[in-house]
Automatic annotation (TrEMBL), chain B:
The keyword Membrane applies. The keyword Transmembrane helix applies. The chain crosses the membrane at residues 6-23, 30-47, 53-72. It comes from the Bacteria. Its main location: membrane. This is MrpA C-terminal/MbhD domain-containing protein. InterPro entries: MrpA_C/MbhD (IPR025383), Nuo/plastoQ_OxRdtase_6_NuoJ (IPR042106).
């Protein structure tokens, strides 16, 4: 067990497990943000473990997770929009989760790039890191926008905004039948 | 070589799976299901099967929550419409 594997295990234990706990308990708005953090941290742990095992092919699940994790979070934001809009806006601590994700991405991808030989492998690592940071930014912006758009009943809403509250879609119920 | 991370990932799977069974609200279950998918993908990766981990990620992180949440939405909307018709 070398340093990379130990770092990946530590990231799983002290990063992904608490994020998973936060995603499994508590109010919906915290769950959505924590789910995004959990996917980001698991992807970073996979990168570290791949380096520790000396198998670059193991980086592929991290790449897939970097694309699919934010997609899953956006899905939650879209389908739970009424619950998010019903609560208060996101507190500052949840907005800081994005910064935490950025810091984790930098702290993991930087040493990994320094440890690999320059070439396509470094490019792949950089692409994965950029996707993780970008996905975390997009997902958290969507979550905070959905949570803060529910301030009032007449608040401004996008096409998928808070207009999905109970009884806000008169045409939909009849067209289903 | 990977005993410690494997034990950790297996523990995560056990906790997430048990919690998914014990929680009764479908929306909360969908969050736990996506976490269970992540933990299972990690286990598959540590058992040296990255291809299985790839497909588990594709199914577990996006498709399963989509199915659960869409079904919950449909059922609740139908129940609401029926209640409204009874009210009228």
């Amino acid at each position: 067990m070398n340093g990379w594997t130990a770092a990946g295990t530590a990231l799983l234990l002290f990063g992904a497990a608490p994020a998973g706990w936060a995603a499994a308990t508590g109010p919906v708005r915290r769950r959505v943000v924590a789910q995004n953090s959990a996917t980001t941290l698991v992807a970073l742990a996979v990168l570290l473990l791949a380096q520790g095992f000396g198998r670059p092919a193991y980086q592929d699940p991290a790449l897939v997770l970097a694309v699919l994790g934010p997609a899953g979070t956006l899905l939650y934001v879209r389908l739970l929009a009424d619950k998010l809009a019903a609560g208060p806006a996101l507190p500052r601590s949840l907005r800081a989760a994005t910064l935490l994700n950025y810091a984790a991405v930098l702290l993991v991808v930087g040493p990994l790039c320094a440890a690999t030989d320059p070439g396509r492998a470094v490019l792949k690592l950089l692409v994965i890191g950029a996707l993780l940071a970008l996905g975390s930014r997009v997902a958290n912006r969507a979550a905070s926008a959905a949570a803060s758009s529910g301030g009032g009943p007449g608040g401004p809403g996008g096409p998928f905004g808070p207009g999905e509250g109970p009884g806000a879609r008169p045409g939909e119920g009849t067209s289903d039948v | 070589m990977s005993d410690v991370p494997l034990a950790l990932a297996l523990a995560l799977v056990a906790v997430a799976g048990t919690a998914t069974v014990l929680v009764r609200d479908p929306v909360r279950q969908s969050f736990l299901l996506s976490l269970l998918g992540l933990a299972l993908a990690l286990v598959f990766l540590l058992f040296q099967a990255p291809d299985v981990a790839l497909s588990q990620l594709a199914v577990g992180t996006a498709l399963t929550p989509l199915m659960v949440l869409l079904s919950v939405r449909k059922v609740r909307r139908r129940a609401r419409d029926e209640r409204r018709e009874e009210h009228e």
